[in-house]
């Protein structure tokens, strides 16, 4: 049974890095009986910080010492196979997927999550938990082998969702960009997650956590809002 916590962002307003979701993560790990176990952290998305810096920041901000980044292992595939908990940080989704495919980790992580290993991720780490990474907000600064992602949630995820147009901005809004995706991919469903929101997944059910509603988008503006604590089938 899949167990996942997918967080839109590492921060919420001015609360600081991972502060708003620290309790959610701890509760998630306790609920599944793995709190205190080693977290295998995947830092590949963090382009502007080294792997060591990223690992240290997550340890400090989560106040959880038993975190080990995958870059310390000589064999990343074995690290995933033996992981008790998998966490994937945010950054650039294209870079993250490039390295997951380079080290042949996508299928291994999928197998682990399908067999019940708890997974949590934020921003890019949440985006890749969907069907594909094609609703990322990031620039394609490197090209991964495929856009096919982990399918923990068998739909698309858009983190950092902002509704409406920014004043004096003449480009497309986020809704318009997501509508473009749905025009081309008419059988898809997108879950657009505002910052400060997460999806907690257990098997084929999920619920929204946080203070904002999640926007569920389908082709031809078939949209609905899913409110906090509402449980729905995925």
From TrEMBL:
Signal peptide location: none
InterPro entries noted in UniProt: Class_I_gatase-like, Peptidase_S51
Keywords linked to the UniProt accession: Dipeptidase, Hydrolase, Protease, Serine protease
The UniProt record lists the keyword Hydrolase: yes
GO molecular function terms attached to this record: dipeptidase activity
Transferase is among the record's keywords: no
Pfam families from the UniProt entry: Peptidase_S51
Listed CDD domains: GAT1_Peptidase_E
Gene3D superfamilies the UniProt entry points to: 3.40.50.880
EC number: 3.4.13.21
Family in the record: Belongs to the peptidase S51 family.
PANTHER family found in the cross-reference section: ALPHA-ASPARTYL DIPEPTIDASE, PROTEASE S51 ALPHA-ASPARTYL DIPEPTIDASE
Name this polypeptide is given: Dipeptidase PepE
């Amino acid at each position: 049974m899949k167990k996942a916590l997918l967080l839109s962002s590492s921060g919420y307003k001015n609360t600081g890095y991972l502060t708003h979701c620290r309790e959610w993560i701890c509760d998630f790990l306790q609920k599944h009986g793995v709190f205190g176990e080693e977290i295998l952290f995947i830092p590949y998305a963090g382009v502007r910080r080294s792997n060591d810096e990223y690992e240290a920041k997550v340890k400090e901000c989560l106040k959880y010492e038993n975190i080990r980044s995958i870059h310390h292992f000589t064999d990343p595939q074995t690290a995933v196979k033996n992981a008790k908990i998998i966490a994937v940080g945010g950054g650039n989704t294209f870079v993250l997927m490039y390295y997951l495919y380079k080290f042949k980790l996508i299928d291994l992580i999928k197998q682990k999550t399908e067999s019940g290993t708890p997974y949590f991720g934020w921003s890019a780490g949440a985006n890749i938990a969907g069907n594909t990474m094609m609703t990322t907000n990031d620039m394609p600064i490197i090209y991964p082998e495929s856009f096919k992602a982990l399918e923990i949630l068998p739909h698309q995820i858009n983190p950092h969702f902002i509704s409406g147009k920014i004043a004096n901005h003449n480009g497309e809004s986020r809704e318009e960009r997501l509508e473009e995706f749905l025009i081309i991919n008419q059988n898809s469903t997108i879950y657009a997650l505002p910052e400060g929101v997460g999806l907690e997944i257990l098997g084929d059910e999920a619920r929204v956590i946080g203070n904002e509603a999640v926007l569920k988008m389908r082709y031809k503006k078939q949209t609905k809002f899913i409110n906090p604590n509402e449980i729905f089938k995925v």
